[in-house]
Amino acid sequence: MRPNWLRTKLPTGKNFNEIRGILQENRLHTVCAEAMCPNIGECFERRTVTFLMLGNTCTRSCGFCAVKKGSPSGVDKEEPRRIAEAIQKIGLEYVVLTSVTRDDLPDGGASIYAEAITLIREYIKNCRIEVLIPDFCNSPDALDTVIHARPDIVNHNIETVPRLYSLVRPMANYGYSLKLLEDIRKKNPSLITKSGFMVGLGETWDEVIDVMGDIKNAQCDMLTIGQYLSPQKNALTVHRYYKPEEFERLRLEGERMGFHSIESGPLVRSSYHAHMQSRKILTS
Known about the structure:
The chain has eleven helices and ten strands. Helix 4 runs parallel beside helix 5. The longest helix is centred in the middle third of the chain and has 14 residues. The strands form two sheets. It has an eight-stranded mixed sheet, sandwiched between helices. It has a two-stranded parallel ribbon with strand order 3-4. The N and C termini lie far apart (42 Å). It has one domain: Alpha-Beta Barrel (TIM Barrel). Strand 5, helix 5 and strand 6 form a beta-alpha-beta unit. By secondary structure, it is an alpha/beta fold.
């Protein structure tokens, strides 16, 4: 049974229903819904959305994720335009774009990220854009495609400690994910970089601190740390629930390490309070 600090309200409210209607009208997916995020009600009511691009079927089989796995069918070339239109309708000043992982595509879907960023800039002049990207099968050209489109923040999650990668992210590589963060900074030193990971999957406290240090050494500016919650029966088991005071200890440790902005809490997710977190660094 989940502890009290992980309980959330059922998603309701005027903004929630309005945004859900716009998303349905524009035939768009969100990571909020597809990944069964516990914060969907709060975020929609705050008029914040994280768009899930390139369909809703992922080519990878990560053990923690609720997003559907399988063989995706094609690419919807009009999806970026519908996203830009939806952002305009909702009136977003800050948006997070992410996607399923598409190992079936030559560029991993990087061109769709670039097109979406370009169109959002055309439709909404002052909208800040954060992208949460996959590893693009280690392709430097794909990473270049996204970076050249000029997002404001580039996020790539580490997700867990190295020892658990074969269980949690069996088709990914810890070392390469760190290198990707380093490469973003090398390719464009003015870009803000961000990463995050989950706790509660069986890692030790020392392993958590080591991961935080690795991410900081990769020249990452921002960090998110949240509790893993098993989204469905066949997902990985929660080994333990971290207490709020433990997340506060991790936040203070992150500040000591020199992260410019860190969100650490039981319900924190990659894009949770992303707009508010970004203000700490975009305006500094």
